[in-house]
Amino acid sequence: MLKYSIRRFFWIILVLVAVSFITFSLMHLVPGGPWDRQKELAPQVIENLNKKYGLDQPFFVQFGHYLWNLLHGDLGLSYTHQDRGVTEIILQGLPKTATLGITAFLIALLIGLPLGMAAAVKQNSIIDYISVFFSTVFASIPGFVLGIFLVLVFSVSLHLLPTGGWGSVRQVIMPAVALAALPAAYIARVTRASMLEVLRQDYIRTARAKGLPERLVLLRHTLRNALIPVITITGPELAFLITGSFVIENLFSIPGVGRLFVQGVSNRDYGLIMGTTIFYAFAVAIANYVVDILYAVVDPRIRYD
Amino acid sequence: MGALLQVRDLSTSFYTQDGVVKAVERVSYEVANGETIALVGESGCGKTVSALSIMRLIAEPPGKIVSGQVVFDGTDLLKLSKADMHKVRGARIAMIFQEPMTSLNPVLTIGRQITEALEIHRGMKQSDALDEAVRLLELVGIPQARRRAKDLPHHFSGGMRQRVMIAIAISCQPKLILADEPTTALDVTIQAQLLEMLHNLTKDLDAAIVLITHNLGIVARYASRVYVMYAGRIVEHGPALAVYHDPKHPYTEGLLRSVPRLDEPRSVRLAPIEGQPPDLIALKSGCAFYPRCSQAESQCGEESLDLVEVAPGHYTSCRSVLKGERR
Amino acid sequence: MSVIAETVRPHHTLWGDAFTRLKRNRVALAGGIIILLVALGAIIVPFVSPYKFDQQDLNVVLHSPSHGHLMGTDGLGRDVFTRLFYGARTSLMVGVFAQVICLLIGLPIGAFSAYASQRVDNLIMRFVDVVFAFPDLLLIILIRAILGGSIYMIFLAIGLVSWVNIARLVRGQILSLKQRDFATAARAMGGSSTYITLRHLLPNSLGPVIVYVTFGIPRAIFAEAALSYIGIGIKPPTPSWGTMIANGYENIFAAPYLVLIPAVAVGVLMLAFTFLGDGLRDALDPRLRR
Fold this sequence. Notes:
Structural class of chain A: mainly alpha
Strand content of chain C: under 5%
CATH topology of chain C: MetI-like fold
Order of helices and strands of chain C: HHHHHHHHHHH
Low-confidence stretches of chain A: none
Order of helices and strands of chain A: HHHHHHHHHHHHH
Radius of gyration of chain C: 23 Å
Largest sheet of chain A: none
Shape of chain A: flat
Oligomer: heterotrimer
Distance between the termini of chain C: 24 Å
Largest interface: A-C, 43 and 38 residues
Largest sheet of chain C: none
Strand content of chain A: under 5%
Number of helices of chain A: 13
Radius of gyration of chain A: 24 Å
Number of helices of chain C: 11
Structural class of chain C: mainly alpha
């Protein structure tokens, strides 16, 4: 078990270095420098700026510095916000994105798991049809389309909820629901499929032949086995939520990391873009790592790898 | 009569996209206390389905127990409530399945899979149940039982897993054990061991066994009576030795002939039964064995017979045998 | 012998069987029909519409759907109906071509990786893992920011990120099929590797690939809409559903239909492709075969 965790850990580190490298290179491939903007800058100013941001150094030296800073948690400087470093900027947006993500995750679980389980246990009933319908529809419609519908209904027509911003509970509801829809649909679908698969297995028949009440058959025998694939997909879903869906943050004007990223792209703030990209990759990597470990905990067979 | 189990005119069908599969068609058999009977036939002849029907483990769609009675110790199991049936399963009737590799839950320890039955049916506390589980594991020949009780199924070989299944089956001291091809998936040498062990254990418990198999060798050694099934129906039944030495149905004869025998020279060719088992959806009227039967007459294809006694305790449904006997 | 002949069932080919099953799946059919209708509209409407997509008429700004304008007008007096179908054109093109690029890159790499030596295969898969570590929309945005430019660059940006899934899928399929008995049988009969790959393995792998591509199209459509919504997608005045949503949102209280219509369009088209994809997946699943 320990060996497994360590191996995965080193792999993650390697991936992150590769990600940094790729992001870094990509940024340097962009045509036109970072200073190509509305106002013309005097060549002397450009030279000074380049020196300040270390852009006059050879590529690998820059990369080396960048990596070194990364290890210290310093994500570099922003090109548009002269007063704060990227790390600081991200930290300001992080609580909002994280709250949104976690709320959405919980909503997704609370809707998806029971729906999937009920559908599997009562196959071909109303619940089953609702579940399948729900999963298919909400797995296909993108979150921001759903978000727009929610705004149209609850803000424009019913005037019940605000269209955006951040700070009150009412402002979290719509974006969280919009964000949760897709993961909820996937979770419901996978849970249902997985439970159906497990219920067909021979060992469930053995459990029933032993005279166990159906409740135990479901909870003790079926669920643990059925949840394994569900956890597997939870990883990518969690990553999806962490990254907060830039689009949803934009739609609801939530000053989170996603919005920062988008603004950075529009402003060609390469420092910010790089920093947020690395941050995202890092968050995704951690989420996947946690899921891998969780997977090993739930499925004892893996530990003996 | 004092029979422990009486299956009377049991019919079970499966409703599929392609049609209705009559897996079990008016099957009757009985087992006395402590007796071992064998249910013999090819794959797909309905023997497993009949056992599952007794346990009411048939998945309701697409299957359904259409008619009949299963009288166990005086009660018709088919009429019991679900809750009452739960009390019967595992405690009074136990079942051993064919596939040891998939019949145990992969994420629960072996010990747990034994103790849960003990807790439910014998009301034991966890620690007592664990001790009993260890005792049972030792009884079925698992070495280092206490340590191995904490292991997961994938640490055990097929033969060991089947021993565990046997341990689970006898754990609550059932009166009847349905053993569905318990050794088919195992090596020949282990088969003998396991069967002998099962036989001894059940003798100690005074439990009856319905031994489901296609292996005629086992039949001769352990069963007192044999029921031969074909295409969902019983075609012959009687005392094991009688059926063996004096089969009264062309199918039984065919089965016996197709087994290689040690007392014949090796150059003798095996004599398989010509043709294929019938499609259980498209069953025609008349004897199910008719298309493959060498002794058939035209009337056999039109009308089938119910079982008739041709010798003491020995029944057949074959028209030509009956005709021959009456000669 | 007549006994055996009676028990043989009629002959089905994989594709024929799949097609029959697909036809029976009404939901998938509905999806397919919707796609066809949208595609037809995308081709025809721009030709027959009395309005140009960039034709502004400041006298009819923000008019609700009416006789003259089936879906109303936007903030600059442009006809929404016309713009919607121009946008459909964009979405469908991006959806399909992005997947084409995915296939062009992913299929050969995946197949190659399955046959290459252990080390080369490992290397390629590690690279794939790294690309996977990026959230895909993010990478698309980045690449788009670099490539800039026209609509073709959008296909490229999406394709360059999404090919990894196809590569992984193809590789996985070929690897598992390589082990299977029918491949061994072919090899035992003297087939060379290339022959086996082309004639036996690829056709068997195609099923999941087709399904994946069908699901990939709505993802690409979404990516384009998201990019345009953020502002780095299709450049105005060319209509894209994403930009229409962005512009429409500004007037959401005054003219909700402006945002509703393109949003519904995106949703419906993506749903249609998903239904079709689900149907294809069920139809092509050999395990469900009778």
